[in-house]
Amino acid sequence: MSQSIPVVSLKEFRSGAERDQQAFISTIGKALEDIGFFALVDHGIDADLIQTAYQAAQTFFELPEAVKLRYEDPQFNGQRGFTRFGREHAKDHHAPDLKEFWHVGRETTLANLQPHEVPQFHPLMSRLYQQLDACAATLLEACALYLGEPRSRLSAMTKGSDTILRIIHYPPVPQDADGSSLRAAPHEDINLITLLCEATASGLELLQRDGTWLAIPALEGQIIVDSGDMLQRLTNGLLKSTTHRVINPDDRSDRRFSMPFFVHPRPETDLTPLQRCVEQTGGIQTFPAITAETYLRLRLQEIGLARL
């Protein structure tokens, strides 16, 4: 099976000749302008670590509900630990998503919870977090160069930020599920960029400009990368935050696991569009000034993870 979105090798940027580096920068920049997505290979994320992390995730999510709920603490607004099935919904979508998940963040911003019943869980997810964090910083450097900004312009925003690794379980679709519920209803990501470790099954689709949905297969060795609302705001709409969803399987008994890595700027970051991007998009600032902290809080309220 071939990939339906542009595929790039991170080796070209990290260690390739200057011509290869420029080709990488151009390819991912144009992909984020056109469709908001691309697939990454040779990314340096340990394949065995990804698979072992999924095994630990399955062990956790198969625990009794009462045990899992011990790790759901309302004071964290869903930003650490467990979030129960059906709690989150997409913006402007009344039906809940058919998923449960666990959040791991940076230890320096907020303490992570650790499921004692699965002792290997936290060490594995922490290692995966570190590898994804390094990969994301490199991708943001390439994005900045595409925009004509200093190399560290975007990656510096994420130093010490509360970037989140979400470990998601999409269980078999319940017989009594709302008829309009999907595993993940159409939505856009909140953050700068998202790195999605190869999911255990397909189901991800992006909304194309002609109004049709494009399936993005889950292929071994590939990380799917997309740009979020915060990057769209910073670039005055030049780089797109594309609507996407995860559809329900034909066989309702199937389950799916995925691990998106939501890369956030520090809370105090000003998301006012970059002047160079304003000039590239017609000279009119499309998005008003707002801090990352304020924008995140508003969006978490919209999707049901934070109280109004």
From TrEMBL:
The protein's annotated pathway: Antibiotic biosynthesis
Keywords assigned by UniProt, alphabetized: Iron, Metal-binding, Oxidoreductase
UniProt domain Fe2OG dioxygenase: residue ranges: 160-265
InterPro entries: DIOX_N (IPR026992), IPNS-like_FE2OG_OXY (IPR044861), IPNS-like_sf (IPR027443), Iron_ascorbate_oxido_reductase (IPR050231), Oxoglu/Fe-dep_dioxygenase_dom (IPR005123)
Single GO MF descriptor: oxidoreductase activity
Keyword Oxidoreductase belongs to the record: yes
Entries under PROSITE patterns matching the protein: FE2OG_OXY
Family: Belongs to the iron/ascorbate-dependent oxidoreductase family.
Name the record gives this protein: Isopenicillin N synthase family oxygenase
Lineage: Bacteria, Bacillati, Cyanobacteriota, Cyanophyceae, Leptolyngbyales
